[in-house]
Amino acid sequence: MRSITNKNINTNYVEFSPGNDPFEKARQIGSRRWILSHIFYRSNKLLFIIVLFTTILAANLSSAILVVIGNAITDFLIGKQSSLLFYTTFILLLSVGTPILRLINYMLREVIAQRLERDCRKEFFSNLLGKSQSFHDQQKIGELMARATDDVRTMNFLISPAISLIFESFTSLIVPLFYILAFYPSQLILAPLIFSLLFFFALKSYTRKIGPITGKLRSFYGMMNSTLNEALTGIEVVKASAQESGESKKYYENANNYRDAYVEQGDVEAKYLPLLILALTITGGLIHAIILNLIGLMNIGQVIAYLGLLALLRFPTFISIFVFAIIRLAVSSAQRLLEFMNKKTEIDENVGGYKNEIKGDIKFENVIFSYPGSEKKVLKNISFEVKPGQTLALVGTTGSGKTTLTKLISRLYDVDEGRILIDNVDIRNYALNSLRNQISYVDQDVFLFSTTIFENISFGYTGSIEQVVEVAKEAQAHGFISNLPNQYYSEVGERGVQLSGGERQRIAIARAFLVNPKILILDDSTSAIDSNTEDKIQRAIRNILKNRTTILITHRLSQIRWADLIIVLNKGEIVAKGTHEELLKTSEDYQRIFIKKFDVEIDTLIKRCEEA
Amino acid sequence: MAYGWALEAEEYDREFSDRFLLKRILSYFHPYKRSMSIVIFFISVASITSAFVPVLTSIIINNLETNRNIFSIFAVIILILIFNLLSYVFNYFQQRYAFRVIGGVVLDLRKNATDAVLNHDLSFFDRNPTGKIVSRVNSDSETFGTTVDLSIQLISSILIVFFLLIIMFFINILLTLAVIIAVPIFFILALSFRKIARKKTLLGQRALASVNDFVKESFSGIQIAKTFRQEEKLYEKFNKVNDTSYKVNLRRAFILNAIFPSLGIIQGITITLLVLFGGKNVLGGTISAGDLNLFLQGVNYLFFPLLSIAAFWPTFQAGMAASERIFALIDTLPLIIQNDSIKPSRLKGNIEIRNLLFQYENNKGVFNNFNLSINSGESIAIVGHTGAGKSSLAKLLARFYEFQGGDILIDGISIRNYDLKEYRRQIGIIPQSPFLFADSIENNIKYCCSNAKKEDVINSLNATSGSDWIEDLSRGLETDTGERGSRLSMGQRQLVVFARVLLENPAILILDEATASVDPFTETKIQDALQKTIEGRTSIIIAHHLWTVRHVNRIIVLDHGKIIEEGNHEELMAKGGMYAELYNTYFRHQSLEYIEKMKEIKQI
Fold first, then answer.
1. ipTM of the complex
2. What chain B residue is nearest to A503 in terms of C-alpha separation?
3. Residue A494 confidence (pLDDT)
């Protein structure tokens, strides 16, 4: 067993990992390396090589056509009738062969690109699943979404078309040079050589200018997403406060910033210098070829072919305007993805840890806790013990630390100081899987997935329909579920049936029943929905308390009254502790609730209590 | 399968005709007329200068072939240089203005779409997931902008071809026709791809949208997944959705990428034909080598825009589909009916509901011939079982949903005649589950009224539960509440909402089970505050806390959308009907006796 006395930070902590992770190392090294490791992942390698090869071949064919055309014109000019059929067939073969090669090239490139998108998204998703709750608390869903969708998509565009076009332009920059050298006076490569050099520097300065603008565009885009997302999630409040125009304005500001960055991008692109360099190069090459023709070193057919070869430089010049922008974009997208994936998470899965079945004895020893990134202590010197099978009720004003305390037990967060023991073993020594499997939550803010009720109940443990019906009965949920149009197969959430708070809660209780945990944390913020429902919830809660240790945060006085131990929290500290009877005598805060509620004297309360 | 619906069309999708779509798109360019005409001007002149460069080149070649006059060759070269420089400068201006126009159009489109979405009634949001709406507003408009950018570039190369063809026509009609004949073939091929490409693109985008939706939901409910150790399950489901998207999008990509090479083959054949016929002409001496070169170059110039149409067809398709999706979103009619826009100064709060007929879109009937009148300043409580229609009544009063029949009159005027926003400003709702924005507590409280001062914020806090709990937070009123208020507890969130609504000072206050998620400690505080806050306004309290109900003038007992009893607490108790039954069950739960006996019940 691992020693826990020193809490050493390990950057590779994960709470979930689906098998091996081939990109882990590359992620640590950096975005470029990570992108490469995806491109060369498994069979992508082979596809990639074929793509390269066909690109080079296609570039050769395009150059060869021009040489052949040049020769043809020369022969036509000297009146060689017989050559017509030969040239025509030859040109037909070359000019039809090129697109066929391209077809193969594009198909394979698409496979790599789509795979890259799929794999990156998969990696991102599983990585986020592995992050601790404290990480997720700090994320805005909108930001996260922007990464999972658009940034991942950019990785696709990186291959198709960006990288594939870069190869294509690189080869169409180089290959014509060889053809000029092979077929024409070698001094003619002067113009394209100078071009290549100037092009390189102009491009470099261009990408340097466009880079920061691209970054700005991305971040404003992310903000546009998150503002709109939030406004729509809280649409009811927006409407009730008649703040539609306010939200619209907020969104507009972000969209406006985005527009400004876009215009800035346009200004840089408009000045794209290689276009001018190309035009001057072609003119220069023309002058050069004319001179050679005038002094008799080149015939007209050759001049035409040479000009054709120079025209091939158009492709890399035009393409580079946006291709490098895509690459920049992809690299910054990759950085944003990695920034998330490489974020440290402090909870360790501890696969090799303690896996025994727990009895349910919970002990807090001087626990101190503050949320990550905050100085403020939310819990101070918390010590208590709950025996197996007992019920502990936590009471206190809102914000006193009740919910936080429960979150520590299943290690959604780790304590700062002190320790928490279950069956006398520090919870950090348990395998996280084993620990969380034996602890269940019924949350105050019941979250249901947009899927069927059946799937929601069997979320924690996949049960048969019979089992699900049985636990739903125990949780007093069977009644209302049976009245739904598709019963257990009714969809809930955005597209399905709308459930009330009490109904959601009973589904959550059914969910917990099915898992049958040794420790249950019931954070029950609903109270007295209606009398009928109240009866059912009471019964549901009563049922689930049996045979397990339960920590209860509830507004139901009847549940608090009969808890084996009641802890009164105030500002993160235990101010009173004991049974109902003890607290009525010792805690003024506790007394007041009952006095106000029932309009009785404290003596009556204590008397009633002693009678019972 | 839970995500099976993902590839189906959204209910607000429409099929627009291309002509209509184009007209609609053009209307967005209207405000940028001036910049747009600058763009068009520079595109035109840049095209002319660009088109002349190959013509001048072939003049030089012809000259080399015939009289080899160095001076005229030199003069033409100077011309070429000037034209090249001009093209660059014209292009520069064209681009600068084009980006301004596109940026503006996309911005307007986004604003319109956002405004349309924000103004929809709540039934729209019941039907459409937030993730998909956001993706429509943001990514679709982005795709649209890219398409416009490409289209402008396309126009410029089409113009070049146009000018070039005119010149070629004067040189040799037959060869020109040989070149042009490829164009219809080209378009027939491109158009036959069009339909299937468009369909595949829509499918691809929808598949992607459902991946997005899944990711969003997974991380919204991540805490549940973590506590139940169900990451694996989510991961498997995600893989399914993600793989579907991969397959659909790969198929789409295959189709789209086949277009370019297929058209390349046509280009190859055209060049071959040109060499064949042009070669014959050169041999026969009817055409010069320079002219043949011009025609060969002409093919490249001609095919450049054609190929870019094909190459950018995916984007172009996506752009059309995207604009279609946005317009569909903008055009979805809000279901709220407005007959007038009376701006009330201050409502008195007299409510009269007459013969109300209401059902949700899923045909779940709620009210049929429902009548109720509430006097100005009166406090009424509505009690009843879940599903009796209590919350629906509150939502109808807030105009979140539209009713189908009857009328609701406020101060004697139909609710449909008031200006929607002014009206809502005077209605305060405290809902069952509090929603906060990811902002400071202070800004959350003064959400309705951004001009409110800090004292107002503190006053409204004091009017509910006091502000001492705020002081315990790390940064007081400045504390960031986190997404949906996740950094605060449920009770704290509800207190913020209470303060928010009080600051609004509504004429009509609706509390929808508002204290349901507040702990007993805080609840006792709110109890006191509530008495004060409902004074001077019409209050509708949907409650299960009968302590509030007891202090209310009139209690309405609702059952299946019908009022079955009404009166004050004593009257209703004396009547011994449903209220008495509800009350007795309630009392049994909340009474000291019940609580004391709970132990026995537990042991049953």
1. 0.79
2. B386
3. 60
